[in-house]
Structure formats: C-alpha cells, structure tokens
Amino acid sequence: xxxxxxxxxxxxxxxxxxxxxxxxxxxxxxxxxxxxxxxxxxxxxxxxxxxxxxxxxxxxxxxxxxxxxxxxxxxxxxxxxxxxxxxxxxxxxxxxxxxxxxxxxxxxxxxxxxxxxxxxxxxxxxxxxxxxxxxxxxxxxxxxxxxxxxxxxxxxxxxxxxxxxxxxxxxxxxxxxxxxxxxxxxxxxxxxxxxxxxxxxxxxxxxxxxxxxxxxxxxxxxxxxxxxxxxxxxxxxxxxxxxxxxxxxxxxxxxxxxxxxxxxxxxxxxxxxxxxxxxxxxxxxxxxxxxxxxxxxxxxxxxxxxxxxxxxxxxxxxxxxxxxxxxxxxxxxxxxxxxxxxxxxxxxxxxxxxxxxxxxxxxxxxxxxxxxxxxxxxxxxxxxxxxxxx
Length: 390
Description:
By secondary structure, this protein is α/β, with parallel strands linked by helices. The protein has helices spanning 3-7, 10-19, 27-34, 40-65, 72-77, 81-93, 108-115, 127-139, 187-195, 278-282, 286-293, 329-339, 355-362; strands at residues 98-102, 119-124, 146-150, 163-166, 171-172, 175-176, 200-205, 219-225, 228-237, 245-250, 254-257, 272-276, 296-297, 305-307, 316-326, 341-348, 368-377, 380-388.
C-alpha cells in the first residue's frame, strides 16, 4: 500500500485528524508518541500529509486543503483555487459543459471545473498523481463529475469533449523551464491539441512567456491574484479574440484589454507615481494605464508611470512622491532619520540594489512609514520617496 492508500483508511483518516494542527517544531515528539499505537509508515505518511495540507492552505483555503490529498509536486505546481475558479467560470460562460483536462496534476483545475458544473476527464501519466486526483474528487464530493484517467495525454481522444485545457509541466530536474518547447508536453503540441477542440480551449503557460511565442490565432491573458502574477493563459475558439491581449486582476475579476496604444513617452516626474499591476506589465499594457491617468513613463525602459494628478485605476497602485534624489545611500539615511521613518518599504525597477541590502544600510528607526523606489529617471539611477496616495 502507498501513502494515500494508508491515509484513506478509517485509521488513516483518524490519524490525519489527530495531526492536523501538529507544530512542525514538535514533529519528532509527536511521531514518537503516535508510533506506540500506530504503524510507523502510517505515522510518517500522516505527518507528511499534514505538512502538505498546511502549505496548501494558501492556494486552496483551509476548508478544502484540510480534506484534500497532496503530493509535494502537487502543492508546488497546482493552480491557486481563485484563479482556477475564474478560468472555469469563463469556460462555463462560453457554453462549455465538458472538458478534457490534460496534465491534471492533483486535480485543482478539475475541481474548479466540476464546481462550475462542467464534466471533466482529468488525465495524467503519473500513477500517484492520478490517485491523489481521484481522492480529491471523492473528498470534495465531485467524483460524479470527474473521471481520472492514467494515460499519456498525447494519446487521449479529446473529440467527445467541448473544450480542452492543457497545463504542461514547466519544471524539470534543474528547476523552472523557460523555453515553451521544453514544456512537457511541448507548447507546439498543446497548441495543436487546442485547435482541435470543438468549442474552446485554454492553455496555461508561464507568465514570462515571450509575446512572440504566442500563436497568432490565440488570445493571451495574464492573470494576477492579490497583486501577484500567477499565470498566462492562451485562449482558442469561442470567445477568444485572435491576437488580443488582456490583463485580469483577481479578486474581481477586473480585466484590462489591450487597445494597441504606442509606448508612452518619458517625462519629468510628477507628483504621483503609479505602479502597474504585474499582470499589466507582463501583458505590455502599461500604455493603457498611462492613458487612464494622463501620465508618462519615468524612464523609457521602466514600467513606472508618473502623473501630476491622482486618478483612480484598479490596474495600478498610486503613490504620492515627496522627495527625489540621485541614488545615494548616505543622503537617503539622513532623510529617513530626519523624517523619523522606521517602517520602510523598498521597491525597485531598473536597479541592481536588493531591497534588504538597502534596508540594512539605512537602518530605519522611528514611528513613521515611507516607500522608496529605486529606479531610473531619464537613464540616471534615482531614488523617489513617498507614500501610498490617499
């Protein structure tokens, strides 16, 4: 029996409940105590699963993570539930009622699709991963909508399904894979599979995918959640606008479509600095944000927008700039001491200085807070000091 077989027995489930809130620092003592009354392999499996569930809370929420079963790779590579739910709702809105989920992993996307009322064929070639996906479908009461199949995704007939969703593996033995053709399966295969879908298709890719690698007949969407860029999705078929780009921010969703604006010109710093959301930057839509706030760029190569007025936009965070100076640690330290700044947020674009390194050098002290931007203005290393605009 493997770990998941153990853990799905009544004894295993009881043990999982017992170690749910185990403190990692006390794990050895807990394991020693439990091994007096339970088989050692079961205790080890339960404690390992408890650690994975604790890590998974950030992606799946406490309620689901506390019932699901994970593998280490599954926690690392699975889609955040909020992002998967957004994507599933978009497919449902396109009239999709069945999806072939290829490279399904532990089933995070299949779960979101099923909760949107979509029937799912979830396919993966790894036996343990498939077992985790089945266990999760069962644990969340979705087994009637999710069929898990252990197979090579390149050999699966997707014709009976309205849509295809592909999430190729983007990690290898040496870490992240940046070349889309080195994905498993390669992006070119996933694109070909998407083009055969009867209604729609979505391909999950790394947010750093080069724009020139996006097929001409795909719509590219970059998605962030809570300000963190999570993924890019290539959409095909119904509802997709070939060649279009968009940035979608969660929660919301709030979507900024590309309008083909040219890059904004650089200008002298104004009273306000706008920091576009990472999805906006990845989608190359900084010009759209600049147009919304009537601003320009601090530097032609930096994705910071500056403007004289404070205008509301959900696609960027606004800061009021109080000071501007050439990069100089001693002068910054003196200014922060004069202002009584003890809470210092350091942001950077176009600077090689690490925020923690700078924070250690200036040693902020005092009751006040400030934000310093390490960037370039007209090519010159510059520090801009300010605070979130109100």
